[in-house]
Write a structure and sequence with these properties.
16% strand; alpha/beta; 9 helices; Rossmann fold; 290 residues; six-stranded mixed β-sheet
């Protein structure tokens, strides 16, 4: 359950030197810092209006170095959202996201189990309560998109990685202030959607528990069918948690506007990113959540 309706916790993770702190400071203080100063862990807070509603963002900028990753896993997995950052001029920084992705996926599975246990323990008293935690929102950001001449990770490659792991995708530049505000606004919107989806399911699950508790047993066949239906429901919920990507579920038709953006980006990244280097910065501002 969230501490407050409009508070959102965001953890920024990724390999060292990919620009996590630069992104954070651009959002929080409108600062650009060129020098690389390795971070252990810094916390920031900022308020942003998204769709006319103020949100309090509690942001944790984490260490990318391997020696600090145990600390990361122990203290940051309960966040509402994760921004996974890689450097488009460093191919290994994209594969370095595998570790963080695995930890987040494990956390998502754990939330499913914890939510089911809480609903079972509370029973009918859970009615009207926001029980448990929604699935974590994940967005991948390919940072330093202004460095076109030294790019080694094509936008298409970053997009394919994001799709493979069920994440949203953006390309950003902390130095040029490209897609910084847009990325965090997108995180906020997807967290809001995740909460709505999750707590709506809580109400439905509580109603099912009440119905099951008040209905007399039918016969062995009916009981077996009921258990089968419950198992299918559980498996469905797990599937939804795993496939949840910024509020978008598998099988759900994308909005027409999003499809236009998708087509535009696909056209732009064809030819191994050749056209990316020749297009105006406008292209990067069109990169949206997938």
């Amino acid at each position: 359950m969230a501490d407050a309706p409009n508070k959102i916790t965001i953890t920024i993770c990724g390999d060292g030197g990919c620009g996590k702190s630069s992104i954070t400071l651009r959002l929080v203080r409108s600062q650009w810092i060129h020098e690389y100063d390795p971070t252990i862990e810094d916390s920031y807070s900022v308020t942003r209006n998204v769709d006319g509603i103020p949100y309090f963002l509690a942001i944790t900028d984490t260490a990318g170095q391997e020696e600090y990753r145990g600390l990361w896993a122990a203290s940051n997995l309960k966040s509402d959202a994760f921004l996974l950052v890689y450097d488009i001029t460093n191919a290994s920084s994209l594969s370095a996201l595998d570790y963080f992705m695995e930890m987040i996926d494990i956390e998502a599975e754990q939330r499913v189990e914890d939510n089911q246990r809480l609903l079972k323990e509370l029973g009918s008293s859970a009615q009207g309560l926001e029980v448990g935690m929604p699935p974590p929102v994940k967005i991948i950001a390919g940072n330093k998109c202004d460095l076109k001449e030294t790019r080694v990770v094509a936008a298409k490659e970053g997009l394919e990685y994001a799709r493979k792991h069920g994440c949203g995708f953006m390309e950003t530049s902390a130095r040029e202030m490209v897609n910084i505000e847009e990325t965090f606004a997108l995180l906020v919107r997807r967290v809001v959607e995740a909460r709505q989806q999750h707590y709506q399911k809580d109400v439905q699950a509580t109603h099912l528990l009440q119905t099951a508790g008040s209905s007399p047993a039918k016969n062995p066949t009916a009981t077996g069918q009921s258990k089968g239906a419950a198992l299918k429901s559980t498996n469905k919920e797990r599937s939804l948690f795993r496939s949840f990507c910024c509020g978008i579920f598998r099988g759900k038709e994308r909005p027409s506007q999003g499809q236009e953006q998708t087509d535009a980006i696909k056209d732009s990244v064809s030819g191994h990113g050749a056209s990316l280097n020749s297009t105006a910065p406008r292209l990067w501002r069109r990169l949206s959540c997938w």
